[in-house]
TrEMBL record:
Entry keyword set: Antibiotic resistance, Cell membrane, Membrane, Transmembrane, Transmembrane helix, Transport
Pfam families: MatE (PF01554)
Cellular component, GO annotation: plasma membrane
Source species of the chain: Mediterraneibacter faecis
Protein name: Multidrug export protein MepA
Similarity section: Belongs to the multi antimicrobial extrusion (MATE) (TC 2.A.66.1) family. MepA subfamily.
TM helices/strands, residue ranges: 21-38, 58-78, 99-118, 138-159, 171-190, 196-217, 238-262, 274-297, 318-342, 362-383, 390-411, 417-437
UniProt key word Transmembrane: yes
GO process terms (BP): response to antibiotic
MF terms in GO: antiporter activity; xenobiotic transmembrane transporter activity
Keyword Lipid metabolism part of the UniProt annotation: no
Amino acid sequence: MSSNSITSTAREHVFPLFVKYVSANVLGMIGYSCYILADTFFVARGIGSDAIAALNLVLPAFSLLNGTGLMIGMGAAARYSLSSGRADSEIHRTIFTQALQLAFVAMLFFFSIGLFFARPLCVLLGADGTTLPHAIPYIRILLMFSPLFLCNNLLNCFVRNDGEPRLSMTAMLVGSLTNIVLDYIFIYPMQLGMTGAALATATAPLVGMSILSMHFWKKKNQFHLVKTRIHLKTAIDICRLGVSSLVAELSSGIVILVFNMLTLKFSGTTGLAAYSILANIALVLVAIFTGIGQGIQPIVSSHPGKNGAPVRNQVRRYALSTALLMAFIAYLVVFVFAVPIADLFNKDKDPLLTSMAAEGMRIYFVSLFFSGINMVSATYLSASDQPVPGFIISILRGLVLILPIAFLLAALFGMTGIWLCLPVTEAIVCVVTFFFLRKF
């Protein structure tokens, strides 16, 4: 089903189309986020607390890598759908190739950092003598395998926009399952430690791309590689439309970086280990909202202008309602099962670690009710060709507000203030979000 058929179908059957795209993308993103969660579980159980602390320290670098892939993929796919009414136009014909060229530039950057600057990067992120031996091999391998992550993100976005959300979902889920299986094999029987965990994570996108390549063998495939050179104007346009996705991912990395420093200051390595459990669980829960946003993007982008406003508004209502429902279910599960969830990642059965992590979950994840609205709305606005308000929402929650609020609440309330930081920030941003939704 091409983006043109998305348009014609959505006018008559918005809700079935919404369910088709959103369900596939939510499941796919949950599977994709399990890359790191699987690492956390096996690293925690198979290597120990120093390794899990190291894993958490390098997560911001992975967020930047993943966010860059999403920015290029989501931005280019949005422009692809927005131009679908003129399928013979130059931009519609060449956007995939130009996005791939832009991704290649990003690949060179990340690959070079991983090859030459892995140790300085780990030190910059806060690794010390106990965590450096675990952090360096992990981040070096991830960054040197950046071509796989970036190409996988790009293909996922285009295949989804080209009418194949289920194929995109399948690729992400099978890739995640591969990661989990390889994590077990590399960490336990083969005893490869953090190197094994990184190799398992880096191999999964290759599996995903193998599945996505099936789309190219179908006659209904609408995007192809063509002979063209990258245009600066197009590259800027891709980044402009996708920047909210980058900022959303970066916000997770920035929050992790700041919280790493604060938890070390107030509670030492036990606090850092407790926060690392929350941070990795948050990757999966936030992936739900990312999936909703990615699911509505092809539908919203295929209905530009005043004529498409009724469909866009209807999709927005469905998306926000779904985000709130998923937030309620997720928070209920976390609240009730906080202690057993914390115990899963507590190899040494440290009661202080379990207590601290369980208490943190019940406060920290109140943020889900607000972050769901903020994340879905930012993607919706960008998909509607309104990237500026989408960017403002993302930058407020990811940088402008989160940093001063984190330091203020930590100074006033210690670890409780750290857990409160994200709910307070997301609630304030939610007010701004509703202002933009009313305006646009």
